[in-house]
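Hi support team,

I've been running sequence recovery on a batch of backbones for a student project. Most finish fine, but this one hangs at about 90% for roughly twenty minutes before it completes. I'm not sure whether the input is malformed or the queue is just slow. I've pasted the structure tokens below so you can try to reproduce it. Let me know if you need the job ID as well.

Thanks,
M.K.
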């Protein structure tokens, strides 16, 4: 298992690194064997620590969790507990659906941009917004059931994916009523108004 521990606004010591590696190794080993990659970022924010954890499972699924506490170890433990619940839920769903994917998920790269916020009515109309950040985003190739499962076990509001059935780009999202919505442009036809 590859574990990368980084700190923002603080130096991560050997004790915290060892704690993170041991906890993740134990939690992940209960549910998955194989090459799992993890990235943990611990950040000092005012009077508490904030830990962000990301697990890249061998099936291609990415799990994310976060935790906050006045102690760095405890903030990571809160995030790790959330990750453990996600792992357990994901493993149960894999068994229930009998879809234990052994090959990695294919991904395609897509550009991701952060646009400057509109400054209200005094902002000129028709101008292009300023791009303040540009990154690459990996868009996974999944079935609709796998995408819904990944959204259900994550904390993100939506997931864009390439539909394994037809290769088109789809989106699953959390609806206001708690259900999961699915947008599939598929062979949508353009309407003229």
């Amino acid at each position: 298992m590859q574990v990368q521990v980084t700190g923002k606004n603080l130096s991560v010591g050997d004790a915290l690194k060892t704690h993170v590696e041991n906890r993740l190794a134990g939690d992940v080993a209960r549910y998955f064997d194989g090459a799992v990659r993890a990235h943990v970022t611990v950040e000092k924010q005012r009077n508490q620590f904030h830990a962000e954890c990301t697990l890249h499972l061998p099936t291609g699924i990415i799990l994310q969790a976060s935790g906050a506490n006045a102690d760095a170890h405890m903030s990571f433990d809160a995030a790790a507990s959330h990750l453990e619940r996600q792992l357990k839920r994901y493993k149960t769903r894999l068994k229930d659906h009998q879809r234990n994917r052994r090959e990695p998920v294919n991904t395609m790269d897509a550009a991701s941009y952060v646009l400057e916020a509109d400054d209200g009515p005094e902002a000129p109309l028709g101008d292009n917004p300023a791009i303040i950040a540009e990154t690459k985003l990996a868009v996974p190739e999944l079935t609709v059931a796998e995408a819904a499962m990944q959204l259900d076990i994550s904390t993100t509001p939506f997931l864009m994916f390439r539909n394994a059935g037809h290769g088109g780009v789809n989106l699953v999202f959390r609806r206001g009523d708690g259900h999961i919505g699915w947008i599939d442009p598929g062979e949508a036809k353009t309407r003229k108004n």
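--
Follow-up from support: It reproduced on our side and the slowdown came from queue contention, not your input. Residues 2-97 form a domain with the Double Stranded RNA Binding Domain fold (CATH 3.30.160.100). No action needed from you.
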